[in-house]
Design brief:
The protein is of the alpha/beta class. The protein contains 12 helices and 8 strands. Helix content is about 50%, strand content about 10%. It is globular, with a radius of gyration of 21 Å.
């Protein structure tokens, strides 16, 4: 009898382990298309675009890129437009990230709507050429308005134009590392670039683990996540590393629409948000539950300081 039970128990054990280790979905989203960089060099941005798209294709990521409209009408508009077309032709989703990357917290809502509409007028024809329409909108700085009235006015406009807000439930402050990495690359400092990359990947893995744990604590389960990244050389050079980090943390890349089907994204965002918080923080207010912020990893002080220096006009 015992010999007959052993295979059954083994199968049950394998089933339990498989369920426990089942990957959650994660939607990878890249802001600031056609690219975010320390330099205005078109060649640098083009190489970044080529590397990032090759990596995304190689690892079968179904990513979403959010376009800043005035980058396609300002300096080198043809080159920048061609980069966005590359994203479209790679089969990736394109979303609206405003025309001038302004914050709704600091801009009158009528002016903000006009700015987003201007970006829509740039983006919509690019997508129409492939029979597509824009669906997703991402707030710059994740700042969704300081009053319920402003937010409702803007979200009513979005709904009328068939847009949905793309929230964020996982992030790694990648923008803080990006300019530091660019600076090392532009100065041909391979040792520094390698160090920044190593620190960035270590920090990313800590952040991913924290958000998975925080989601479980907040919701009693781990939701599908929406990961905020940026279209940078650092992310272009680490796509394979990111794929391995996600796999180690039982995360499965998926389209943004699939992640948004998770019931967690129906939780109301009931707070006015002056700080540009990601959505786990917003849900914690709605649900009256604390998040374990004491254990959140701090970005390295030297990286933060150098980013501040490089980002100062």
């Amino acid at each position: 009898m015992r010999s007959k039970l052993l295979p059954l128990l083994g199968a049950l054990g394998a089933l339990v382990w498989t369920h426990a280790a089942r990957a959650e979905g994660v939607a990878l989203t890249y802001d600031d298309l056609p690219g975010f960089a320390l330099t205005d060099s078109v060649a640098y941005e083009q190489l970044t675009t080529d590397r990032l798209l090759r990596g995304i294709k190689r690892h079968h990521f179904q990513a979403t890129g959010f376009v800043i409209g005035d980058r396609l009408d300002g300096d080198n508009p043809a080159a920048h437009r061609a980069m966005v077309v590359q994203w479209r032709d790679a089969g990736l989703v394109l979303g609206n990230h405003t025309n001038s990357h302004e914050s709704l917290n600091k801009t009158p809502v009528a002016d903000y709507i006009a700015d987003v509409a201007q970006a829509d007028a740039v983006l919509r024809p690019i997508l129409a050429a492939r029979g597509q329409t824009p669906v997703w909108f991402r707030h710059p700085y994740l700042e969704t308005g300081t009053t319920a009235e402003a937010r409702k006015t803007f979200e009513d406009w979005l709904a009328a134009h068939a847009y949905k807000v793309a929230p964020v439930t996982m992030e790694n402050s990648d923008w803080m590392f990006a300019l530091v990495y660019d600076n090392a690359i532009l100065h041909h400092d391979r040792a520094k670039a390698a160090r920044v990359k190593r620190i960035y990947l270590s920090y990313t893995e800590k952040c991913v683990a924290w958000y998975r744990s925080a989601g479980l604590q907040l919701l009693g389960r781990r939701p599908d996540y929406v990961f905020l990244l940026h279209a940078t050389r650092l992310n272009a050079d680490t796509v394979g590393d990111l794929a391995r980090i996600l796999k180690r943390n039982h995360l499965r890349p998926e389209p943004l629409a699939r992640a948004m089907a998770d019931p967690a994204y129906q939780i109301a965002d009931t707070r006015g948000d002056p700080d540009g918080d990601e959505w786990l923080s917003r849900w914690s207010v709605t649900l009256h539950k604390d998040l374990p912020w004491d254990s959140f990893p701090d970005p390295p002080a030297d990286i933060s300081a150098e980013n501040d220096r490089l980002d100062t006009p």
